[in-house]
């Protein structure tokens, strides 16, 4: 009968083999740098061939699993570093500053990003054993968490990625694989954080409603009372809890959404800076340029030219 130490070594070797296969399959499917959406809805593959400069961006509810290399994300003053041993769970949309910190041409940064499906989480929730009561840790409402990547989760991810080689089967099997991935996360140490999204009376759920309103109407003037009503909170409570979760006020968050969308329009669609500013709700081009420079470190045209030269990656 195997000794416990032998079981640990066997499990570690199995995880390394899974990661090696995942790395090979991702590299084969994404020969170039950047974020690559896949034929499987909700799945993206990210590659970077060199460390990157810090870049402000918005992370949306997702599971980020690094297969090779390392990345860091800064939320307010809190630093998250995820690597092939750890995955990142983002439970609500948050503004972060991301940076790839380990990548080379021979061993690029490779990451899988899977969108969180709140409906799937709600459907699976009744089938998850109730966790043992835990002492408050102070991070219950934090929107980002790290955990060690367990073998069963890696196995489910690998089976999902393998489906990219069999498109005829992917339409049937991919939803099952995605469901299992959600299930594995719910069973793990971050399960309670993910379940909080479905607790209608919980603060995480209500904050997510406020964020959804901001994401949908980012280009419009939004009075704080309207945002608070969406979260079923008073304006003062919303302000306090929103800033605790995102390190920003609701209106600062809305401004970042506007600037991020303007950057996307310029970078991906070739829209001129003045037109992009107008489309995201800015009336003053000079105010747009000033706030863009404050966030991204350079005026719009110069920053976008630099980004096009370096390539961009999120996740």
From TrEMBL:
It holds the Pfam family AraC_N. It comes from the Bacteria. Keywords: Transcription, Transcription regulation. Residues 208-306 form the HTH araC/xylS-type domain. SUPFAM superfamilies: Homeodomain-like (SSF46689). The keyword Cytoplasm does not apply. InterPro entries: Homeodomain-like_sf (IPR009057), HTH_AraC (IPR018060), Tscrpt_reg_HTH_AraC_N (IPR009594). Coiled coil: none annotated. This is AraC family transcriptional regulator. The lineage of its organism: Bacteria, Pseudomonadati, Pseudomonadota, Gammaproteobacteria, Lysobacterales.
């Amino acid at each position: 009968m195997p000794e416990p130490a032998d079981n640990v070594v066997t499990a570690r070797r199995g995880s390394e083999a899974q990661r090696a296969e995942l790395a090979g399959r991702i590299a084969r499917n994404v020969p170039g740098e950047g974020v690559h959406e896949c034929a499987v809805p909700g799945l993206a593959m990210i590659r970077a061939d060199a460390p990157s400069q810090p870049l402000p961006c918005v992370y949306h509810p997702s599971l980020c699993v690094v297969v090779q290399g390392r990345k860091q994300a800064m939320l307010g003053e809190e630093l998250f570093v995820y690597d092939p041993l750890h995955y990142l769970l983002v439970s609500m949309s948050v503004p972060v500053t991301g940076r790839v910190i380990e990548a080379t041409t021979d061993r690029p940064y490779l990451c899988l990003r899977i969108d969180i499906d709140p409906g799937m989480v709600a459907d699976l929730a009744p089938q998850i054993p109730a966790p043992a009561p835990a002492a408050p840790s102070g991070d219950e409402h934090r929107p980002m968490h790290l955990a060690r990547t367990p073998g069963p989760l890696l196995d489910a991810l690998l089976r999902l990625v393998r489906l990219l080689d069999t498109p005829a089967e992917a339409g049937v099997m991919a939803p099952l694989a995605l469901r299992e991935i959600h299930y594995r996360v719910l069973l793990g140490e971050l399960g309670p954080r993910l379940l909080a999204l479905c607790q209608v009376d919980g603060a995480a759920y209500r904050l997510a409603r406020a964020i959804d309103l901001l994401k949908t109407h980012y280009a419009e003037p939004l009075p704080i009372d309207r945002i608070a009503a969406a979260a079923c909170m008073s304006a003062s409570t919303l302000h306090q809890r929103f800033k605790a979760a995102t390190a920003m006020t609701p209106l600062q968050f809305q401004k970042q959404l506007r600037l991020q969308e303007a950057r996307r329009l310029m970078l991906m669609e070739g829209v001129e800076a003045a037109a992009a500013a107008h489309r995201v709700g800015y009336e003053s081009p000079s105010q747009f340029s000033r706030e863009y420079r404050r966030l991204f470190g350079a005026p719009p045209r110069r920053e976008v030219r630099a980004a096009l030269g370096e390539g961009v990656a999120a996740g």
